[in-house]
Amino acid sequence: MTFPASSRRFQVFSYAVLLYTLAVVLWGAFVRATGSGAGCGDHWPVCNGVVIPREPTVATLIEYTHRVTSGLAMVLAVVLAVWGLRAHAPGHPARRASVAALILMLTEAAIGAGLVLFQYVAHDKSTGRGFWMAAHLINTFLLIGAQGLTAWWAGGRSRVALRGQGLAGGLVAAVVAGVMLLGVSGAIAALGDTLFPATSLAEGLRQDMSESAHVLLRLRVLHPVLAIVVGALVVVAASLLARLRPSPEVKRSATAVGVLYAVQLGAGLINLVLLAPVWMQLVHLLLADLVWLSLVRLSAAGLAEDAPRAELRPRESATLPSSSL
Known about the structure:
By secondary structure, the protein is mostly helical. About 2% of the residues have low confidence.
């Protein structure tokens, strides 16, 4: 079932909220990469016990800016959800996605508060911090995914049907799980880069392979391997989904996912060679978010109720003319 498109204003606003949220996410990564997470101490939501810090350090300014921008992101999420509920009839997918985005924004704030209150910030090297970072990454992916779907469905697309999708549904589930796992490993690898910086590529490899290496370093070495494996899965799954659901939207989305993932792999290699400078970590994260959003769009287009369906058929092989002996 295809629902009517939302107003132009709602469509523009939904995309603006998504772009702003991506900027806040990148600033949060900057907080982690610069070790500024303890800039406001173990106080939340206030900063060092006050609403507006006095004579703040650089770390305090960085962390405080993240809190202020995150607060505005929360306000925008509330506006998006309220507007989504008021502007769409019950059952409209944009309505549901906007509410889901608000709920995920609330859990995002709760995870951020937990990181501060439990002091999983700055130079903390505990294993618990790794679990919190994994949860943070998963929630962030789900959050921007919900915001992306709000904007997508606001354009008048059909809602998703999860039942009866057969192989297409299995492909989507596999590639979504794979990219999510890759994102978690990337978050842990980035944390390892922050906590255990190396002065050369050779030293970094020695750190990872050492028998006494910290668990975060042992997990860091898995990220490049996962990137290659998941990359192969993404390419195959996107290609098959484009054949199973041969709509223009699916084909464009499949191409976008493949291209962005290739760029992301290149950025990951550059990040590794340059020893993960802060600016490159932010570029790497932005590309990871764009890959995820493209995958969400591909999934929504491929599993749409009105998506055309086709069966997989072996590609016809070229036949050579027979010759008589």
